[in-house]
Amino acid sequence: EYNISINNRVWLRSSYTDLYSNNKWYTSKDGSLSLIDICFKEGNDSILGIWNQTELIYNFNLNGQ
Fold first, then answer.
1. Residue 15 to residues 1, 44, 50: CA-CA distances in angstroms?
2. N- to C-terminal Cα separation, the chain
3. Which helix (H) or strand (E) holds 4?
4. C-alpha to C-alpha distance for 42 and 48, rounded to whole angstroms
5. How far apart, in whole angstroms, are the C-alpha atoms of residue 2 and residue 38?
6. In angstroms, how far apart are the furthest CA atoms of the chain?
7. pLDDT tens by residue, 1-19
8. Three-state SS string across 9-62, please?
9. Could you tell me the CA-to-CA distances from 39 to 23, 24, 63 in Å, in that order?
10. pLDDT tens track for 20-60
11. Cα gap 64→43, rounded to integer Å
12. CB under 8 Å to 2, separation ≥6 — which residues?
């Protein structure tokens, strides 16, 4: 579960994640797609200012488990 916030206000709340690959849907709802890691990065751009990034790393469970 995750939220996307802008100016410290929740803009989007997470739901199930679905990805389509090789003519098949994978979803966190049925366990065919598993969140295995989260990486956080941040920096400062001279034009755009301070930024941060969150990477959600998923694993395709090809057997649907």
1. 7, 30, 27
2. 19
3. strand 3-6
4. 13
5. 11
6. 46
7. 778 899 999 999 989 999 9
8. EEEEECCCCEEEECCEEEECCCCCEEEEEEEEEEEEECCCEEEEEEEEEEEECC
9. 28, 26, 26
10. 998 999 999 999 999 999 999 999 999 999 999 999 999 99
11. 37
12. 14, 54, 56
Block residue for tokens 């579960």? 1
Amino acid at 34: S
pLDDT value of position 49: 96
Q: Is the pTM of this model over 0.70?
A: no
Q: Which amino acid is at 47?
A: I
- What letter represents residue 51's amino acid? W
